[in-house]
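Minutes, project check-in
Item: structure for the 222-residue chain
Input as provided by the requester:
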Amino acid sequence: MNIIELDDVWKIYKMGEVEVPALRGLSLKVKPGEFLAVMGPSGSGKSTAMNMIGCLDIPTKGKVLLEGQNISSLNERELSRIRGRKIGFVFQSHNLYPTLNALENVQLPMRIHELREEDIWDRSEELLELVGLSERGHHYPSQLSGGQSQRVAIARALSTDPSLILADEPTGNLDTEAGKEILDIFSNLNARGVTVVMITHDEKIAARANQIVRMVDGKLAA
């Protein structure tokens, strides 16, 4: 079974009386264990595609299947519940809570989903060790570098053991060395069986993926 499947997905935005299609019949399949890069220039529809893959939005036409479940007609509350359990997000801006330390940031999704307290502490410590920050658990975001903050964001994305990690330009705010370290982490996670979809405009970054798809005018390039 595919983790995510987009079947003839259209997304049309209305601007007054004008209809603007952002996606034009996009079809895409993501298999378990895949490391997929979605590329495209500005305006190609890749951000809208990310919203569909991440169950952040529903299509105007077509179907989005997450592990076989059609999410196209779900309401926002139902979508939120699914996202929280099955998809881990890593954004260009790491979006850490400044008043929480690294461990607390990683623990937050698990607390929202009411995991056992013992499990929360064990898993958060394991995940910080996985991203090489076991000694930084009690540091706050202001005490971390950009690369370290993004590592915490990756650990947080993994905290609920999601089926899919969705990364949107994850190295966009980092220098070359820190960006390479983050990509190494994604490659290592993928080697452990984690499914990764990465949105990027950078050919060198996309080259780290197992498969690359390119978008143009709201659909896959031929």
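Outcome recorded: The longest strand covers residues 18-30.
No further action items on this chain.
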